[in-house]
């Protein structure tokens, strides 16, 4: 499909006061107060907040390119969310063969563009339970990371906005738990029969399937309406919300694009890391940049441990195996990788969904053309990779034998699994990089269909990131170790059984016509497990490869202030510091962590 919007260069950048460089040799000054590695979800927040003080000079280094040109259409149009996966704005990683997924290797998307993964993700904004943050406080020994203490940062990060058609959201969210921050979020512009039946079931069976007015309130359980990072008819990213406004108004912030940090540099023989080496390819000239105050590493759950190990910080044996001198033996660098999986089940229904729309390439093209004119219409409020309006977070039954293996959730108000209700089940060739329906399944091209996705929210499987060479331009190995524990596969089976029970309630009578053939065959635990292992894919939520811990703990990578243990001048701010897979969706938590991290840095250097 030749989308009109892909032929039009949509610019997100206008006049800039700060400088944007496309090559390191263009940067005249090689010394800054702060150097931030990675213009992703966290990096853009840190750059914008630190540059609020005009007395400091900030350099933000991004391996990918600017979020303009044809990339801007892919990023900005909500309908096209997910279609950046597998393109030049994706790092295009691949996992190792996953024994828990029948030996399959999984495509592992991460954003390779300004805005990072906030520019290519499914745009869901879900903070998770209050216990998630209280666990962060407990693990780190710093009460400042608790839910109550983080309210300030939550409110300066995000604000609720109405959908493009100004559909009333009264009774679908709690305005008191949303703030006035730069990140724009909102609810669906269109309510479908699927959504009405989800809400009806919570009304009919509220004791078992409770309604949650706002899943961003800290109450981590129940069924509710889903917030997405869409405002004014377009995707809101860390770049559009934070970075570009800062670049457009401040001369003390510089952005260096298409340049990869190859390693961190320490001063003389000490463990003070206030320098970086950077280049544009494995054979290109290396350039040095120095920070008078500190380096902030925000390269993400994959990139951050890779850069640490390339700098000799990490498991000594691992770095020495590729010819790197070990500077500091930190075994937890690259370890403890957690990720969440997703798979879908599908039913043909008696009611309007978006199946017919997605099967009509002319209609999709017309919707995108309408968006280009005034940012309205279906392209302005729905995303091809999710089409989710209602969602739920649930726990295993209290008497579940799985809980005898231990409870990995952050607390009794935190979920074990998630169900999300979609109004389609289409995988168009034009949208080949989206994840619905399941990989290798052939979707129907006629009829109206709904899907429900299933996510194990609190997995116990642990994987790793490891470097394969001394070159930053060689991808590391990524092993999420999906479904390698009895708890994870058992929870997936129970989640699907709960879904089938939910859809058997009276609200769905006459609406569901028939299941997809593969779903009809799910009659035993063994058949459900086989389905999970055959079709589960990554939800693209990796965390914990440089996890936080108390200052006194021998384990962990960063302390409560996010400074790397055992060295000076180096701080990490991204999803890699989180202690476990998140109870919501990680981008929301990363934004909140980054807001407080910026405050911690300002206080450390007495900045305004």
UniProtKB/TrEMBL annotation:
<dbReference type="InterPro" id="IPR007867">
    <property type="entry name" value="GMC_OxRtase_C"/>
</dbReference>
<feature type="binding site">
    <location>
        <position position="113"/>
    </location>
    <ligand>
        <name>FAD</name>
    </ligand>
</feature>
<feature type="binding site">
    <location>
        <begin position="586"/>
        <end position="587"/>
    </location>
    <ligand>
        <name>FAD</name>
    </ligand>
</feature>
<protein>
    <submittedName>
        <fullName>Aryl-alcohol oxidase-like protein</fullName>
    </submittedName>
</protein>
<comment type="similarity">
    <text>Belongs to the GMC oxidoreductase family.</text>
</comment>
<keyword id="KW-0274">FAD</keyword>
<keyword id="KW-0285">Flavoprotein</keyword>
<feature type="binding site">
    <location>
        <position position="261"/>
    </location>
    <ligand>
        <name>FAD</name>
    </ligand>
</feature>
<feature type="signal peptide">
    <location>
        <begin position="1"/>
        <end position="18"/>
    </location>
</feature>
<dbReference type="InterPro" id="IPR036188">
    <property type="entry name" value="FAD/NAD-bd_sf"/>
</dbReference>
<dbReference type="InterPro" id="IPR012132">
    <property type="entry name" value="GMC_OxRdtase"/>
</dbReference>
<dbReference type="InterPro" id="IPR000172">
    <property type="entry name" value="GMC_OxRdtase_N"/>
</dbReference>
<dbReference type="GO" id="GO:0050660">
    <property type="term" value="F:flavin adenine dinucleotide binding"/>
</dbReference>
<dbReference type="Pfam" id="PF00732">
    <property type="entry name" value="GMC_oxred_N"/>
</dbReference>
<feature type="domain" description="Glucose-methanol-choline oxidoreductase N-terminal">
    <location>
        <begin position="300"/>
        <end position="314"/>
    </location>
</feature>
<dbReference type="Pfam" id="PF05199">
    <property type="entry name" value="GMC_oxred_C"/>
</dbReference>
<dbReference type="GO" id="GO:0016614">
    <property type="term" value="F:oxidoreductase activity, acting on CH-OH group of donors"/>
</dbReference>
<keyword id="KW-0732">Signal</keyword>
